[in-house]
Amino acid sequence: MACKATPQPGLKVWFCCVFLLTCIVSPGESSTWGMSNQMCTDPCSLTLVESIPDNLTYPAGAPVHPSTYDGLLSLINSAKQSIELASFYWSLHGSDTSYHDDSDWQGESLFQKLLKAGRDRKIKIKIAQNSPQTSNDTKELAQSAGAEVRSLNITRLIGNGILQTKMWLIDRQHFYVGSANFDWRSLRQIKELGVVVKFNSTPGTSFLSSSLPRFCAMGRTVDTHAIVSIIREAKEFVHISVMDYSPTTEFMYPREYWPVIDDEIRKAAFRGVEVKLLGSYWLHTHNDMITYMESLSILSTSPRPLMDCHVKLFIVPAYTPSQSKIPFARVMHNRYMVTDRTAYIGTTNWSGDSYINTAGIGFVVNQPGSSTAGNSREQLEKIFLRDWYSEYAHTIPQLKKQLSQQ
Ligand SMILES: *[C@@H]1O[C@H](CO)[C@@H](O)[C@H](O)[C@H]1NC(C)=O
Ligand SMILES: *[C@@H]1O[C@H](CO)[C@@H](O)[C@H](O)[C@H]1NC(C)=O
Ligand SMILES: *[C@@H]1O[C@H](CO)[C@@H](O)[C@H](O)[C@H]1NC(C)=O
Ligand SMILES: *[C@@H]1O[C@H](CO)[C@@H](O)[C@H](O)[C@H]1NC(C)=O
Predict the structure, then answer these.
(1) What is d(CA 31, CA 221) in angstroms, rounded to the nearest whole number?
(2) Residue nearest to atom 2 of ligand 1 (CA)
(3) Residue 303 Cα, ligand 4 centroid: separation in angstroms?
């Protein structure tokens, strides 16, 4: 389930990637899992794709990447045989949410393209979705596009939890992994980051084939192991952009302390690695997330050893009355990390729940160094810094001041 780059003459975009699907490694195997095993040698091309919420602007010259919408459209259009989707919830139609505005057309358009792919181009569509679903989107695809839909009740399987994966797999060769749900808001009203991966060599990509029908939370430790080892291997910096950050479970009761990632971050700061953690702040942010993030930023006030550990919170403002009425939108929903060696793009929050009972996936690209054409790690580093230094990112004192003035 992984591929590693071997430098080869004539090919510019060689790198090493480790693809992690949560269900393919059993807990027994995961204890021996390492970043270097299970490697294959397929070359792939990566395109980072982003959803930048309407009216959120950056200064001229800031990095710009293709939109999530364009990336997903290109995947649908390229499909020849199959489109396999792993999803949390669906609301691609504007009418799926209690309020919508004109920006819903991209969700509609994606839905119609998907429907036509199944109905007119006879592409086999398979959908794994979290259960329950509130919308009828997947029923409609089953009826009109022959989609095969399977619902996963993770609560029934393991007692508690959800399927948080967001993945589009095309012809078992090309895929999208990232934070964007199957939601019209994820295209225009929520800030998302993902990656579209296309394999240049045709065969040898069967590595995804057995994994999709078997979504389960059993391999969850693998994702954590990847995150931990990426932080451990960082030599210069660790930059993290996640919606929710907490060293506890947030939704599971009784709540548990879960310092697996938090400990690693503190250790990294202690050994001199620069740490920047960018969380997301919106109406639904838990107050204790701010407390835990603040406890990390306080490390930077320690005189010895000097710890370069900083946190900020990203706010997506609503610029129009309509935008402020859209439920559960106008928020930074990213789940990625970039270090001096590695880029990691995930699908779940960084809290105990996400790794104890949420089925998600992470995509890892090891690309130390810089300045090679198409270096995705370096591109992600620039995206992070663009956001970190933007007017939308607030330190905790700035945030508290702003909140007290409201
Ligand atoms: C928001 O962006 C749209 C175009 O995308 C523009 O027409 C509109 O004037 C902008 N509104 C504000 C309040 O900036
Ligand atoms: C889904 O379909 C049912 C039955 O046709 C309908 O009652 C319900 O309102 C639909 N739900 C949504 C969110 O459109
Ligand atoms: C999921 O499983 C749980 C436990 O078996 C059950 O209580 C719940 O109703 C199920 N949900 C759906 C949507 O089927
Ligand atoms: C992720 O965080 C958001 C915001 O707090 C929350 O609405 C969502 O339920 C969380 N997801 C999981 C899987 O914990």
Answers:
(1) 8
(2) 55
(3) 36
Residue type, 405: Q
Q: Give the chain's length.
A: 406
Ligand 1 center from residue 337 Cα (angstroms): 31
Taking the CA atoms of residue 298, residue 301, residue 305 and residue 308 in that order, the dihedral angle to the nearest 10 degrees is: 70
385: Cβ contacts below 8 Å, ≥ 6 apart: 239
Does the pLDDT of residue 378 top 80, yes or no?
yes
Which residue's CA is the closest to the ligand 2 atom numbered 3?
A: 136
- Band (pLDDT 50/70/90 cuts) for residue 36 is very low
- Say how far apart CA 394 and CA 388 lie, in whole Å: 9
Specify the pLDDT at position 155: 78
**Residue 374: what residue type?**
G
Give the ligand 3 atom nearest the CA of 131.
Answer: 13
Q: Select from 67, 320, 322, 323 the residue to mutate for testing ligand 1; criterion: most ligand atoms less than 8 Å from CB.
A: 320
Give the ligand 4 atom nearest the CA of 250.
Answer: 14
Residue that wins the pLDDT comparison between 40 and 64: 64
**Residue 72: strand, helix, or coil:** helix
pLDDT tens-digit map of 384-395: 999 999 999 999
Task: Ligand 2 pocket test: pick from 96, 100, 136 the residue with the most ligand atoms within 8 Å of its Cβ.
Answer: 136
DSSP state of 219: T
